[in-house]
Amino acid sequence: GAVVSQHPSWVICKSGTSVKIECRSLDFQATTMFWYRQFPKQSLMLMATSNEGSKATYEQGVEKDKFLINHASLTLSTLTVTSAHPEDSSFYICSAGSGLAGGGQFFGPGTRLTVL
Amino acid sequence: KQEVTQIPAALSVPEGENLVLNCSFTDSAIYNLQWFRQDPGKGLTSLLLIQSSQREQTSGRLNASLDKSSGRSTLYIAASQPGDSATYLCAVYNFNKFYFGSGTKLNVKP
User: Fold this and answer.
1) Most-buried pick from A1, B32, B43, B66 (CB within 10 A)?
2) pLDDT of residue A1 exceeding 70
3) Of residues A34, A108, A109, nearest to B98 (C-beta)
4) Do B44 and A107 touch (CB under 8 A)?
5) For chain A, the helix, strand and coil percentages under 3-state DSSP, each to the nearest 5
6) Closest Cα partner for B47 from B17, B7, B25, B77?
7) Contact B68, B94 (CB under 8 A)
8) What is the average pLDDT across A100-116?
9) A5, A44, A59: best mutation site toward chain B, by most B Cβ within 10 Å?
């Protein structure tokens, strides 16, 4: 199946710093990628839909100035957590679809962010 | 808005048992439904994908069914093994988004 990678797999940073997370589709092109956040023992919460070449679409309640998304190419989307605070600590997961009719989504391995 | 519910939230069974995980969704206008497995601290692994026009999909010991009209899907695991212990998530795709259930945490005891 298709492979989606994320980098880094984990990151620890000080409060107030910005952190960038990359999501790459390794063997297919993805015009749309999705970013999710997962709190401990909870399910995935969709944060935003990343569209190649255009602005991301954010879900209600997600601060677009806090979570900057850039879909620079058909294989790369980045999520930048700006001025991170301890409450931003979470597990962030991206997904991408191949765009084939009826195709499912492929998920990255996730990035564990810890803000001290 | 689509809402996805999974029952039970947790399940503990002895090794070798057959089991069923349930998923229900409120809006039947879905494009497809996927079952995923998530191990602690890890990402999601896709298990089965069912298109809206399909009734079921099978992979090894796993069988997933879909009844779109009633808004239900089940994941059947045959002859469970300790390695099956994980959280199982179902997700429906419509309105260009994925909607996830809260998951069923499965523990298979040796």
Assistant:
1) B66
2) no
3) A34
4) yes
5) 5, 55, 45
6) B77
7) no
8) 83
9) A44
